[in-house]
Reverse transcriptase (Caerostris extrusa), 279 residues
Amino acid sequence: MEDYLKLVHMELIPENEIDVPANSSFYLPHHPVPNKSGDKFRVVFDGSAKSSTGVSLNDKLMVGPQLQADLTTILIRFRMHKIAMTADIEKMYRQIRLKDSNFQRIVWRDSPFKPIQDFRLTRIAYGTASAPYLAVKCLQQLAIQEEQNFPLASKAALKDFYVDDLMSGANSTTEALDLQAQLIQMLSSAGLVLRKWASNCNELTNLIQEDLRLPNASLSIDDGTVKTLDAFIAALKRFISRRGKCSDIYSDCGSNFVGAKRKLMEFEKLSKSKITIKM
């Protein structure tokens, strides 16, 4: 929470602005959620918590349509690039200013010996129903506005992002370097920083300052050091078995896998045939 104050992502509400009509403000409960290692915490705001009226903030917020392609489509497209790159936007939600901050009020104190104070979040709150849509819409609007200046980055921002995660690439080192440079410039123009860079091309990672790289960043499959987005790793391992098709399928309800078994048999016959399929 001190980080929120330091970065002006929340502000103390002046005493003369605390008392407002009930329909003009909302107080959000909040709690910390640790990461996997337990050394860092993310503050999550409970937009689904109901007030004394029995209505929550999320009940009133519009979720918005899905703006990005599904993850499977993005991953398949990502696998087609000769030069791959991944990164994510640092604190994406917290880089987007929100006008109606009175509906994101919280109470907090940094010590049990101090009085509780009223604050309001000035940025998109993690845990509110509209947060993903607002963040993605801002990113895509930036891409549309900057299409003339950054054509490669604009296309990647519209097609190769899954919320704040970038999974993109190119077919040559030169094109990949241009794409990387354009992405950094375009996003920085809006105050967005790309970090946790990883690539199978050393030229790309070497151009990034060390604190913005993913530790042990490598996308090489052969050396077994794939360390990038968890979703990418899981999908990559499951996409096609490296040792051939799966020999056994287990389930508590085996009948559900009859169709899958038939498809595997069809695939085996097709792979042994002389038919060539052009993709």
